[in-house]
Each structure stands twice: as structure tokens, then as C-alpha cells.
Write a structure and sequence with these properties.
3-stranded antiparallel beta sheet; 17 strands; single chain; alpha+beta; about 475 residues; about 40% helix
């Protein structure tokens, strides 16, 4: 009977074969036991993660063998067109390319928002973390956030973007949405460790248990005694990149990444053809050696002499069109439009035409916003709870359009919303990426200074209205 390790090795091979035929691959480090003991389902999932990361990082399989020429390695005609990375990066850019802002409703809203901003650090760090979170999700189909309580290094709770490849969730047998345990595995100082976040028997708290690998068994780490997480919610939050019905795990942006292999194969063949046959192969018959002079026109007195050239690469247009066709198909199935200047012609496109061109990608992004937005809100609520601001908080996210916006159209739309009471100044401020609390304070300070200046000027003379332009709108702030 095969050992567990052998079974896991076979499952890894099966997962790779399902994607790339009989391609050999770098297997996970089962020999050292980091992933030993996993179920076959988890082993296949982690193997798939590894393959998808190879696509993203451009480590694609070669399609052409390198020739040996005179005992030395010949030229490598393999070409890698890494469209997979573009698909993931474009998806992350549409999701988090524009600054994401939020507001906290309820009592002490400004204080809570300042605390939340501090725990997410500054805006630049926040957007970097969110972009990396989107890349993790785009590649593997899953993302995880971990809420970390204050410690001796950080006085505030903080948020961590977990590597999906080290997280092994264990769900209830009859409810895939009910996670009973999150298991994190890693190697530290030569030891294999894991931390288990287990829903306790009390049904109220999570138990945190750190263990060391000892042969085929796990024993508790004497340096990390068990702890109790004094909250009903877990410190780990999982989210799906894209929906995947009836399954705990989500869908990757690279579900059709094997089409990238076909593109690489077509372009590699084209590259070899051009290299070998880029120049005509001259042939001749009935010439003497003295008749030939490559610096001049070849001449011969023999009436049967003939000279010609083989032009075997005359028709590469078909191969080029085929490679372009595959790229277009990859663009269609991934819902990421090509940056083809002939199709787009950005300068001549209207705002409506651009929205039509990017319609599918925008729809895909809207679906992602629901998943990532829910996880961000949940993580923010848990951060506020850890910081002592209570567990009942309402957080609203403000997303900006990833498409280019005509500022005149936006201002007109904002003015319409404001005029007919469809939105408040605070909402419009957040929509345009401003911090309302800061802007209101600045406007109050500016108004006070203007009033003081007017009062110290001509007394008794009527002063013109002060109009402070905020958020692209002219707001009348009063008269003196």
C-alpha cells in the first residue's frame, strides 16, 4: 500500500497533468514534511496554486528544444509572452488602482475613522497592501487577511495579507461556509511549525495552538503555550476572488492560462522560422568556383548555369495572424481587452465608447468589489473592536471608477446631486477622494481668516460673497 507521501506526490502530478499534459514540474517539499499529512484535496489545491504562480511569474514551459551545434548549446528560440501577468495586474489595477476611501457611521465617527486610518497605516501603504491582496486572489482564486492584536512592537492592531499557500481551512462537514479551524504552516529555524486557530468547545472563543513537527506527529511548541482568542470572530478572514458556487474556494483570473501556452508555442515557432529563413538561401548549378564572387554579380559561360534563392519565409503573415487570434481569444475569455491601438484609438474614443470597450472588465471588477469590499469592511470592524471601539460599527466604502472620467461631466453630475438633495457634500467629497473632516476644517479655517481680514478692512462696507471651491463644486459659504 502506498504511503501518504507517495499518494500526495501522485496527486500533485495529477493536478499538473490536468493543466499541462505530462509536463514535469517542481514539486513541493514533501520530503521535508512541510505539507505532509494533507488530504489529497488540499494537496491538489496547493499544487494548483503553485502552477498558477508559475504562469503569473512567467515561468512557462518551453515548446521548442534547444539544438546542439558542434557540441555547444544552440540558440533558444522559445518566446514567453506573459499575458497571464497582465490579466492579473490589470484586474488588480481596476479593483484598487484608484484610492479606496471609507467612512464610519455612528457615535464618535471621526475618532473611529482616524483610528481605522492609523491601523491601516497611511494611504500609500494601504493601497499597496490591497493591490498585493488582489494579486494573491487573482492568481490563486483566494485571499486571506489576518487581524493582529497590539504587541510590544506595534501599539495598535494591524492587518496582514496572508499567503494563500500556507493557509489550510477546515470546514464543517455539512456547511462549507462554517470554518471550524484555520491551519497555518511554515518553516522556522529548521523546524516545521503550524498554528491552529480552532473554534473552541465552548462555542464562544477560538483557541490558538502552535505545534512543532516531530517525525509524523505534531507536539505542542513549549515556547508558544496555547492561547484563547477572546472574540467570537476569527482573526483570519477568507475571501473569494470570483464566485465559485458550492465550493469554499474561489475562482482564479487564470482559469484559462493554458491558452497562454498555445500563444507561446505559436510565437516560438514563428521566431524560429524567421531566424532560420529570414535571409534567402542562395543556390546555383553548373558554376565553377572561379565563377562565383559574392561581392559582385555571379557570371558563368556555361549555358546551363542557373542561380536562384529559396525564400521559405515568404508567408509568415498567416502565422502572425494565428498568434494574434490566440491573443484575442485569451483576451475574450479573461475579460481583459487588448491594448490594440488599431481597435482602441483612445484619442478618438468617446467616454461611452470606452465604457463599452471595458464593459466586461468593469462588470468583473464590480463582482470582485463585493467580495474584497466585504472582507475589508469585516477586517476594519474587527480592528476597531480590538482597538476598544466596540464591535458594532458601520463602515461604508467609497469606490472610484477605474475608467478615465471627464471632470466636466463629473462636476455637472455632482452639482445635480447636490441641487436636488440626492447626495450630501460629505458623500460627494468622499466620491472625489477627499477627506471630508479635513476639508471641512480647512474651509472653516479659511472662512475665519477671510472674515477677520474683511473686518479689519473697510468697516461698514458690504463685502462680496466668499465662494470656496471644494471638491470641484462652488459652495457658497456665507456673506459678511
Amino acid at each position: 500500500m502506498a504511503s501518504i507521501s507517495e499518494r500526495l506526490q501522485r496527486s500533485m502530478v495529477a493536478a499538473m497533468d490536468a493543466w499541462n499534459g505530462q509536463e514535469k514540474f517542481e514539486q513541493a517539499d514533501f520530503s521535508q514534511g512541510v505539507l505532509s499529512g494533507l488530504s489529497e484535496e488540499d494537496a491538489e489545491r496547493l499544487a494548483r496554486y503553485k502552477l498558477l504562480w508559475r504562469y503569473y511569474r512567467g515561468n512557462h514551459k518551453p515548446h521548442l528544444k534547444k539544438r546542439q551545434i558542434g557540441g555547444s548549446q544552440g540558440p533558444d528560440d522559445n518566446v514567453t509572452v506573459n499575458l497571464s501577468r497582465r490579466v492579473v495586474n490589470k484586474g488588480a489595477a481596476f479593483l484598487f488602482g484608484e484610492p479606496l476611501t471609507w467612512e464610519v457611521d455612528g457615535v464618535d465617527r471621526d475618532v473611529k475613522k482616524l483610528a481605522l486610518d492609523a491601523m491601516w497605516k497611511n494611504a500609500e501603504w494601504k493601497m499597496t497592501l490591497l493591490n498585493e491582496l488582489a494579486i494573491n486572489g487573482g492568481v490563486t482564486g483566494d485571499f486571506y487577511l489576518q487581524v493582529v492584536p497590539p504587541n510590544s512592537i506595534s501599539a495598535l492592531p494591524r492587518i496582514v495579507n496572508l499567503n494563500p499557500s500556507i493557509v489550510i481551512p477546515h470546514c464543517s462537514a455539512d456547511d462549507i461556509d462554517e470554518v471550524l479551524e484555520y491551519e497555518l504552516r511554515w518553516r522556522s529555524s529548521g523546524n516545521i511549525k503550524r498554528t491552529r486557530y480552532v473554534w473552541g468547545d465552548s462555542g464562544m472563543y477560538w483557541d490558538i495552538i502552535t505545534e512543532l513537527k516531530d517525525g509524523n506527529l505534531w507536539r505542542k511548541d513549549p515556547m508558544s503555550p496555547p492561547e484563547t482568542w477572546d472574540h467570537y470572530w476569527s482573526p483570519i478572514i477568507h475571501g473569494k476572488n470570483l464566485p465559485n458556487p458550492n465550493c469554499y474556494f474561489g475562482t482564479s483570473d487564470l482559469e484559462d492560462a493554458d491558452l497562454n501556452d498555445a500563444i507561446n508555442g505559436a510565437v516560438s515557432n514563428l521566431n524560429r522560422i524567421i531566424r532560420i529563413f529570414a535571409h534567402p538561401i542562395v543556390w546555383g548549378k553548373m558554376f565553377n568556383k572561379s565563377d562565383l564572387d559574392v561581392s559582385k554579380i555571379a557570371m558563368s559561360d556555361n549555358k546551363d548555369a542557373a542561380l536562384g534563392a529559396l525564400e521559405l519565409a515568404r508567408d509568415v503573415t498567416g502565422a502572425q495572424e494565428f498568434a494574434k487570434f490566440l491573443s484575442s481569444e485569451f483576451s475574450e475569455v479573461t475579460q481583459v481587452p487588448e491594448n490594440d491601438s488599431d481597435r482602441m484609438r483612445i484619442g478618438a474614443q468617446s467616454g461611452f465608447a470606452i465604457r463599452v470597450l471595458f464593459h466586461e472588465l468593469v462588470q468583473k471588477t464590480n463582482v470582485k468589489r463585493a467580495a474584497y469590499g466585504g472582507a475589508i469592511v469585516e477586517a476594519s470592524m474587527r480592528l476597531l473592536d480590538l482597538a476598544g471601539h466596540g464591535e458594532s460599527n458601520t463602515i461604508k466604502l467609497h469606490w472610484k471608477s477605474p475608467l478615465p472620467i471627464d471632470q466636466r461631466e463629473q462636476v455637472s453630475s455632482d452639482e445635480f446631486d447636490l441641487k436636488y438633495g440626492l447626495a450630501s457634500k460629505e458623500t460627494l467629497s468622499a466620491r472625489r477622494g477627499y477627506d471630508w473632516a479635513q476639508e471641512a476644517q480647512k474651509m472653516s479655517t479659511g472662512l475665519a481668516q477671510a472674515t477677520q481680514t474683511n473686518q479689519s478692512g473697510s468697516q461698514g462696507e458690504p463685502q462680496p460673497q466668499n465662494s470656496i471651491n471644494s471638491n470641484g463644486l462652488d459652495y457658497k459659504v456665507g456673506t459678511t
